[in-house]
Amino acid sequence: MRWATVWRLGVKELWSLWRTPALLVLIALVFTVQIVAASVASPLSLNQAAIAVVDEDRSPLAQRLATAFYPPGFLPPHQTTLSELNRRLDEGYDTFGLVIPAGFQRDLLAGEVPELLLLVDATRMTQAFNGAGYVQAIVSDEIQNFLHGHLSRPAPPVELVLRARFNQELDPSWFAAMMEVVNSVALLSVILAGAALIRERERGTIEHLLVMPVTPTEIMLAKIWPTGLVVLLAAMFSLIFVVQTWLSIPVAGSLWLLMGGMTLLLFATTSLGIFLATLAGTMPQFGLLLMLVLFPLQILSGGVTPTENMPKVLNYLMQLAPDTHFVAISQAILFRGADFSMLWQHYVALAIIGLALFSFSLWRFRRWLR
Question: Fold for domain 51-150?
């Protein structure tokens, strides 16, 4: 194998990418607009939820509950009646409806256990799932504070104080933006590597390569390093200028250490992209294969939900995926400032998986060329 040939063929791939505006626009949008959208429009927290209150008690406690919901989590509560509340929920004007029955404060001070009615529009799944817990916590706090001023109750012997070690404000936009960068690296590297090979086949230039004194290993490496370089530079640009500068999200660890893990990931994912391209005959078929492979990898890699929450069989199976180890590396570096001594097992695993994927893809690529 001649490295000069790999270099010249790789430069050819860079020029080919430069002459493809659609892919350039895709790279720019993924590492800028999509990162900002994931951070600003993240559905992980409650934001501007519509709530209506039916106050049938007309007591100080009821007024206190009716005014306890503030922006930005909630819109100003809408005072309504029970019949109008049902209509507003059916027509989608409100997501939550809190009904305070008559005599609620009186029964509460008398030592009874009165009930409140909370109606939730479950068609708005994210707001309904998160918001119901918010409403219950707000109502419970207001009732406890009200009773503390009217009834003499002993203080609890133990007070639980929660302190967040990382992301002290528990801002979900921090997690969403950084995980979007991580997912975009794997997504674009597979797409660009596979598209480069399919583009050679559709344009007929793969036959030109076959009559030249080049080997399949040189051709494959020449597809891998330009794609990895472009995605690596775009990801680092996104972390520095979009995440840290534009969104003002701090990065706890070393970006150079993250680049090392990202390089190993790109070696594995670009090899995977070439393997998928050898299975697909056209670009639409390649797109369908991406949906079957990339979405499960991203969902089950630990970026959406911790791998510890998955069934053990699935957890063990996902240890064979490069995305799982890179998500662990990126979360430890970006959020917790971990060093190499804490992460070397994931780096070794990424290197082994990358070599295995490269070897298997090279075997498949040689058969495809024949």
Answer: abc type-2 transporter like fold (3.40.1710)
